Structure prediction request, 494 residues.
Amino acid sequence: MKRRSISEGAGAGRSPDTHTQPLKHRPTPRERRIFVLDTNVLMHDPTSIFRFEEHDIYLPMIVLEELDANKKGLSESSRNVRQVSRFLDELMRDAKKDAIDAGLPLPSGYSGNHGKKPSSGRLYFQTRQLASALPDYLPGHGSDNAILSQVLALQALHTEARVTLVSKDINLRIKAAVVGVHAEDYYSDKTIEDADVLYTGHAPLPADFWEQHGKDMRSWKEGERTFYTVSGPTVHEWQMNEFVHQEDAQGIEAIVLKVDGDTATVEITRDYRNDRHSIWGIAARNREQNFALNLLMDPEIDFVSILGPAGTGKTLLTLAAGLMQTIESKRFVEIIMTRVTIPLGEDIGFLPGTEEEKMEPWMGALMDNLEVLTQSQEGGNWGRAATNDLLRNRIKIRSLNFMRGRTFLNRFIILDEAQNLTPKQMKALVTRAGPGTKLVCLGNIAQIDTPYLTETTSGLTYVVNRFRGWDHAGHITLVRGERSRLADHASEIL
Prediction:
């Protein structure tokens, strides 16, 4: 039987999908779904047209007009628009008018759905004006209202289907609800369902852990390192390079080195809270900071992610570990520090100078922490100045704008404010690492400044989730602020 197009007003029954469904509504087994995509969804994720599994997609003409208006420029959204245009051009290649009216079949070979079913629906374009009258209480004739008008017309035309507007624009979703249009956020770019279940990098041991797991325990030492092999029901939940600990102060603290079914090999962590083991004069002040220094100083770990609110010591610990391994042990040639340049307030405009000079105003955290790390150096003001000059020669500040095509060998790379990167930007940066390079991502997913980026879609959340369990990656979430009693009190009450 010939499939009729959306513009003709009929459609076959479709199988259900709960991917973007709220809990309040479950589609019936034969309910068809039509998703109308807003422009910002395509600008946010150019592959979104392939992520709706067996359901149909409808693009109003105003969306194509907005894509055309945003195709120029060097921003991430402009690049995404151009990629969308390439995808659409490929889908429409050699397609006749009748085929376009009937809906273009979406390819099922796209491999970026991360476990979701391949797309098997059709892509429809607005090929004629649909009669729809917006309510009188909706003023203006903007692009949002034009999209709402199309969705209302589709709803009236396809009573057998569930028409859904997908938009990243909260205000448009609010207006849609007011006029009776079902609207949802775009969920397919979520790395996890809820930021509260994000991997923390450490897990407490149950109170009866040794009673259940100590029967066939084996321990041995190699130099100063102590290892244990334990077996039991809790072990299969552990991840590679995850820290396990007992809550009491004298309890064991260890890192998981190997998991094989119900048997695991762990190593007792080095105690950097002891001043004798301090790193560049910095000692850990709590358990999580100690775990972070263990990851930062481990030569077998190439990728480290550290999450935590302001004042938990992310930058200070990372910079101290980088200096120790660059200046003292000479494991790395230099430290490279970079971050996303998003202002907190009004933008101050263009900055003069070289790449490094332009980035310096954004690197206040680096300068503040360098003062802490050099204030204890002997030799008075002259000695501290000489030390600062030495350190500046080994620390390079780089802009993310010039990272494409580069390869960093034997570098200690610090990426600050990583929560403001998209997953695509994060991938572009991580793949710059060459042999002998260690990459450390720092951030706080509660402070995201990039538009349309949330805790569950941030590039930092993405890498934490994707690198979980890899032999050469580690993650830790810092929770306790160590800045000052004023800062700690402000965090609680303000």
Remarks:
- The first strand starts at residue 32 and ends at 37.
- Confidence is low (pLDDT under 50) at residues 7-29, 342-348.
- The chain has three domains: 6-17+27-184, 200-268, 296-493.
- The CA atoms of residues 192 and 456 lie 6 Å apart.
